[in-house]
Queue: 3 jobs
Job 1
Amino acid sequence: MCLAGTLEMKLPAIAAAGFDGIEVFEPDLIASPTSPADLRRRCADLGLSIDLYQPMRDMEAVPAEEFAANLRRARAKFAVMQQLGCDLVLACSSVAPTAIDDDDLAAEQLHALAECAAEHGIRVAYEALAWGRYVNTWDHSWDLVRRADHPGLGICLDSFHILARGSDTAGIAEIDGNRLFFLQLSDAPTLDLGVLAWSRHHRLYPGQGAFDLVDLTAKALAAGYRGPLSLEVFNDVFRQADPGPTAVDARRSLLALAEDLAVEPLVPEPVRSRLGVPPAASPATGCAFCEVGIDAASSESMTNLLRGMGFRAEARHVKQDVTLWRQGGITLLTSSEDADPRVPGRGQVAALGLYCADADRAAQRALALGAVPPAPEPLIDSLPGVVAPDATRIYFCGPDDSSWSSVFEPVAEHDRDPGANAAGETWDGVGLVALDHVSMTQPFDSFDEARQFYARVVGLQAQDLVEYAAPFGLLRGRAMCSPDGAVRIPLSTSLVRRGGWTPGLRGPQHVAFRSEDIVATARRLRSAGVPLMEVPDNYYADLAARFDLSPDRLAEWRRLGLLYDRDGSGELLHLYTQVIGSRVFFEVVQRIGGYEGYGAANAPIHIAAHHRQRHPD
Amino acid sequence: MCLAGTLEMKLPAIAAAGFDGIEVFEPDLIASPTSPADLRRRCADLGLSIDLYQPMRDMEAVPAEEFAANLRRARAKFAVMQQLGCDLVLACSSVAPTAIDDDDLAAEQLHALAECAAEHGIRVAYEALAWGRYVNTWDHSWDLVRRADHPGLGICLDSFHILARGSDTAGIAEIDGNRLFFLQLSDAPTLDLGVLAWSRHHRLYPGQGAFDLVDLTAKALAAGYRGPLSLEVFNDVFRQADPGPTAVDARRSLLALAEDLAVEPLVPEPVRSRLGVPPAASPATGCAFCEVGIDAASSESMTNLLRGMGFRAEARHVKQDVTLWRQGGITLLTSSEDADPRVPGRGQVAALGLYCADADRAAQRALALGAVPPAPEPLIDSLPGVVAPDATRIYFCGPDDSSWSSVFEPVAEHDRDPGANAAGETWDGVGLVALDHVSMTQPFDSFDEARQFYARVVGLQAQDLVEYAAPFGLLRGRAMCSPDGAVRIPLSTSLVRRGGWTPGLRGPQHVAFRSEDIVATARRLRSAGVPLMEVPDNYYADLAARFDLSPDRLAEWRRLGLLYDRDGSGELLHLYTQVIGSRVFFEVVQRIGGYEGYGAANAPIHIAAHHRQRHPD
């Protein structure tokens, strides 16, 4: 249920991602031309066990004649399971309108179901749905299982049903582990929404939501559970996303969970050592370089823009058409890219080089977590790297390792840019001192996956989710940052996948540089004729209304095109360039005090302005 | 706020849809390069008044120094409003953490705000947000307005905030109408969701949700309200949809509301006659014909399929390449279509001819409701018609009017299909007696608009919304039907706009014919070699488990490829053909007893099977 597509499409995706087994979801089998016996062989060939068949619904606590029909149905399914070679079936607590509030009856019928299953060599795992009619808490299901008292009957715990209701989980560690037949894991964001719709539309892989799955799983392991850690995750996006990447994301979430469990005191020692933990993290600590791809048509504009922004072309790649630009502590690479007209919105942030304490270990960990290395002929073959969910290449670079720059040849002195601006001054930049952040719109399907990638593979910390209205739709954003803010990658996506109409930028990306004196920087950019984004006068009228600012300061910002934001801990002054090519632009920021955000309040301003730039009347 | 895009994009869309005025939403103005004075002129040129400026937030019930800053901000906005020529501002009840639970303070500050506004010739409409910190019900806001006692202060009622909380609205008719300054209307579906998220993501135009807006509006009119009926609607879809169609949808919802208000006893007589009601409905009562477009590459397959299905080509269009096929009470047109490779998924249901008592009045009503007639050179110029939101042409046809068929020339006897099947039998069809339903996937952005179109323009009734999981994503469906079921149009869309990966059919459509004996029909289709969809054996194993069916009956269904469903009132037997071209297929149904559905339980089966047909391993 975690993946979209048909059964025949899911199996190879699951096997490729490195899973050990599957649950068979009945509707998949029913819509499939593969017979149960063929499915068994197919799974065996792929190295996958079939650990559970599901679901049986509305089985128990029903009138006698209905239960007789249920047993008839169950027998037919047990025969299917025998052909599948699967010996565990999931029975969900009844939601039927005909269900009866009678625990004795429920236990009696569960016993009869287990007895019938046992005749086929099958065990029954009983699970309390959070919206079950009378049984909707894990302890109630556990009580019924004990009451039914059949060796072939146990419980299945599904983290969603337990944690969405806020149930007390303390007792789980006390369950008889032999009767805990199955454990299904799913995370979810905190939502003020009914449990049924919350479950149906918003589950997430472990670590992507707000639930404490480490604690819950540790309690199950402490109780003696030794079965599979199974994922039971579906949401509007996963239900229609490519099963290949979704399976990788799923498997990564389990490895991350294993990593967290390995340091959890509740987890028994012998289990801990069998968890298959990936190599320890070596988190990103800084930005070595950022590469921006640019198509041939925009190459000259980009060169002019970077010169105007005070960058100097210092070196060229020995094999590829890549230029290395420097200013302050910033290294920017521009690579020429054969724009493929079939791919909308190329011309983008193509790669990030990130410093970390142990680059090789970071890369080994990334591969263990299912990330794949860049295709052959990488830009920088001396650095290990992986590909992010949005296809950005991420390179790991040891501290003070500048060996990677050996693929770049210094530009001969006389070829160097003579100066940063048109005024003929000697080059000294415009005061950009560091890369502040790299803002990347994510493909709709991989927004949550990207969060996990940057957290677990790159070692960044997820900031709070923000959601804001913008001229062409609601946007959702989450910044991934190193603890000291040296690496900042704000990710964003549209709340609804953008349709054919949307005239805004497709997948806009931008690189933001830091200035310690943005007023001085902006003056130099203006005098160099850098094409900056135009800010409407109405914006400054609103600033004047909202904040008690000196008229001089405000007048200067207006002349220079600076935007302003303020929060409880500091202020932000920033400006944007126009869009170069189809989707990339640049930003300059000055953070004053403890301001940690990205000026989201001003996002609608730059979205509308960039739209006007590209679609003048 | 009802439309996506920039202010400059919204205005022409609003004017074209026939609105009289707008509210200016402050963030739109702030992001706009149009000065307030220019906006005023622009609106005047378009015939639009500016009726409200919004929002003022967190104004009242705050500490004194904060209120002083608020007044400062308000004065700046009042100056903007004077340039706009707008004399009414909306102040929302405070959500600020600094707000104080003190009605006297709130009333005192509202009075001061109104006094300040009055100095600028501006009035203040105070609105209780459903999630206001201390003021969150309409009667509380009304109480504060009376307490503040300033002639320039009144209340604004927003239907969402009132009805989402289930507030008692009886007292609204008793409000002093002169103090009811503004009325904002929005509908919403019933959701088990917190009011803030419900409001932010799920509002709908009046008549598209579950709220009784007729009653609420009638009470406001009874109270003496004579201001604009304003729409305050936003959801994830509208926020990013083309503002042109959204504005038409919005205006249509107001006209429909006016129509309902005109027969509401609470509405005072003089108001009733000024409501601008569209011509009375002449609802669709039956299906005259259905036209399917087909590209050149699929033309031969379509011809063979229709012959095999027992249709006879009886006539050809005098000017266009359109064939008229008949069987039983069914008239099917096939039109050849130059497949445009840039338009994905062409080859579709192109037109429906619907019987109604008064075709001319139906057409006049449709135009009054903002529908547009088909482009020049229509298929059938003697019939009035309009274009549905998904571009399907809808023709209105008087009862027993067959004049439209005069554009078709009978095929000479010797050119007619000699027989319906390969066995050389004399033509007598395969037992298809009527068109049962026409199932159309809607563009993601216009699913709700289509509901309103078919309800108000075509006169069909909306059935309950259904939602179901399918192999390539969750689907949402709603059938639009005539009361006797003679016209049935099930509409569906993906819950999330489909992305690049999705390998299923794009916007599938199908036409379902009714048989009174589907077993006999299926035998004839099989013997004629009609390419029917393959149904997996696993499906029949599941039928056997779920239903107590005779083995003979089941074996026959399996041989013939019939699907089965059952509900409380009857049974459905149905079958599907393979897909012809890129997105069209046919269905045959037999309804037994009172079954009124469309076999949604079997949708995943045909989605997976049609996928396999088009993507064999």
Job 2
Amino acid sequence: MPSISDKVIGRLSLYQRLLYRLKAEGMTNVYSHQLASLSRGSAAQVRRDIMAIGYSGTPAHGYVIDELIKSLSDFLENPAGQKAALVGIGNLGRAILAYFSGRRPRLSITAAFDTDPNRVNRVIHGCRSYPVENMVEIIREKGIDIGIICVPAGQAQQVANSMGLAGVKGILNFAPVRLQLPDDIYVEDLDVTTALQKVAYFARRESTKNKEVKK
Amino acid sequence: MPSISDKVIGRLSLYQRLLYRLKAEGMTNVYSHQLASLSRGSAAQVRRDIMAIGYSGTPAHGYVIDELIKSLSDFLENPAGQKAALVGIGNLGRAILAYFSGRRPRLSITAAFDTDPNRVNRVIHGCRSYPVENMVEIIREKGIDIGIICVPAGQAQQVANSMGLAGVKGILNFAPVRLQLPDDIYVEDLDVTTALQKVAYFARRESTKNKEVKK
């Protein structure tokens, strides 16, 4: 299969969630222009993205929602399941554990780590927690290939290094730093503070613009 | 001042945080190539970004960290303060409240809303919570111009509509939907599930690639 960009993967993941919603609302079929409208893309892009995973609808009936969900799941998820480790069980770490707890059978957070003795050797939102010293060993033992970093900025690179050493191949990074890692490790940054600062900046500009218009 | 793209704003926000860290480590000056290395950009890009906010360093001593932090704060933040409202006080909403609690004096989450009677009329991580029915009124009263959406996908559009009606000009959206809103409202999507699915997909590809190489 040809290599697919991370933007396309992001859109396929969004379609999958939109389809679950439409199915829950009782729909059985959906047209590309409907998915396009819900995902703020074009119908041509939706068709291209879905063609890339080897599924296609018909002009008369569009996509069969159940079939398309199955195709997307087979493509996006590992049927054998995939395991993630989370490091940093502060407020954000706990929220992530709670959020994903039991939600995706094919992708589970199997171990959590922290330096704080009060946070380890417990079960938090269904996930067992361990001292961070045991991280490399436990990631290897459990065959975990995904890491989730929820530690403060100053500790993130060191945690990422240990994850790489342990064999992790993909990292979801919530710490506001750019990690330096080998090319074969995929990193996705989710920087909540930067996102909020961007929103604040543009909100302010729009508010000012409106005031100027009103003058 | 000319319009600045959201990518540049994102980088400026990152520089600001990196500079706070360097300052905490005892540094007083920093060169563009050092900021470039920490932010995984080029030195030319760093210099261009910082020039855009009207500050410049010297070839001999680079940037004075204290001065650059001040320039960035003046540019990115409203000295008079800016207020945000959060809707959806579930696990993620609580984590966001805890995360930003007292952290940024110039940007505070001033009100939180939920439909669940057990979650409202309380103080959660320093923020007062209200029934969602009062949202439009309270956002207007308090002069809030930023909204943070932490509700499930099915409720997000309705919450966004109310926010727009109340005068919010920027939205940080954690719900996995693409919101349909007027052009004068800036939306930043932070989709945790999609991010994790992307990481899982690419981690799996890398793991497979390595196995193939080893064969």
Job 3
Amino acid sequence: MSGSATLTLTALAGVPNVTDGDNLVAIILSALEASALTLQTGDVVVLAQKIVSKSEGRTVDLATIEPSDRARELAAVSDKDPRVVELILRESTEVLRSRPGAIIVAHRLGFVCANAGIDQSNVGAGGDDRVLLLPKDPDASSAAIRRELKRRTGADVAVLVIDSIGRAWRNGTIGTAIGLSGLPGLLDLRTRPDLFGRPLQTSELGLADELASAASLIMGQAAEGRPIVLARGVPYDRREGTMRELIRPKEMDLFR
Amino acid sequence: MSGSATLTLTALAGVPNVTDGDNLVAIILSALEASALTLQTGDVVVLAQKIVSKSEGRTVDLATIEPSDRARELAAVSDKDPRVVELILRESTEVLRSRPGAIIVAHRLGFVCANAGIDQSNVGAGGDDRVLLLPKDPDASSAAIRRELKRRTGADVAVLVIDSIGRAWRNGTIGTAIGLSGLPGLLDLRTRPDLFGRPLQTSELGLADELASAASLIMGQAAEGRPIVLARGVPYDRREGTMRELIRPKEMDLFR
């Protein structure tokens, strides 16, 4: 038996539509102000991938993309735009499966996802010919934002970049960590005893993924657009961390 | 741009060690009181599988289990107690994979998980020879608890039963919905336009799984033991719901 514990997630008000080259730290700070919140050491700032990618100029005009033969073949199988398939292949190291509408790949960042995380929605006024790639290095993006938030506010916060990703076996996407800084990706429970002093069977907890799902729940989807969440009360040990902790090596994976 | 939105998850104080036949609704209500909280319509009460299973008497004494030949063979491959493997087989409809330490199955409830969710930790003072099965019908457990909470408090809340479940491709378990009542398992986004009026690509959100992960994050593990979470501010439409929404049919699954 123990005392209560509270986790509070606030999807911030006052976030404008982010475009290429916008200063995300300035946007975070003014959204905090619009929501009457001040950063505290130990908080986690959770960012939707989309605004990180946009601020880093990861929008691609499909008119500039020439699909390879392989992209054209895979486009026929998956019923997708060959230029989008070309980008999916460039962003991936391996195609695991494909079906109409989805190509499941190992992204160059290491994790498995559909369509290399390339997004055709909410890209901007350019219309259907613009798509958005994932950030080049979301761990590095998180670390840079974290440093700048520390410099400007004095608070030592963690930063987490998330995307909505599908899974094997279950319907529906869930918020999933694709980059982080200042918190663990994975919590190792193997050395902790259970209530009766026996070692726990379940050995590792996907801490950053659980937080990603929690933040996704309150971000809302589509037109609501609340891509910045402040999480307060997350039980974590402050350390550098990387999203690579969450990626199961291929040779250990029974389902690749 | 829109106003801020807040999701609050409180892991309740005052939850005793639950044993066979305990009245879980009485335990929830006294834990709420110990945490100075009152149920409100629209809240979600999230329960760790373990306390639901225990209250339903799902503890099994391994001394009563005679392993079949198949269980003995699989026990050799997976390096597990043949009696536990016998229970895993009884609780499952199909073995997908096995490796030392884990047998990945389709549980009779429909979802894929390791070791049929059978838990050897925190079962009680009986020692290593007692294990805990999942509830017989977690949707029905959730509905019964929901009805009784409504009767006793007047508040129309949703109830969610969660377990820590591993995934393909990623390290670490995450809180996952195994039973629910009064909220959707899945949120269909296919008809909603994005910020620029185009249909959203990502079509379905695993709402109950996101909430399960959020609650798991604050429940804490092992010795801390905070198995009841009150979630307030979850954006959901009240309807009956079932965890079956979240299970991808085998014939639609590229990874079975």
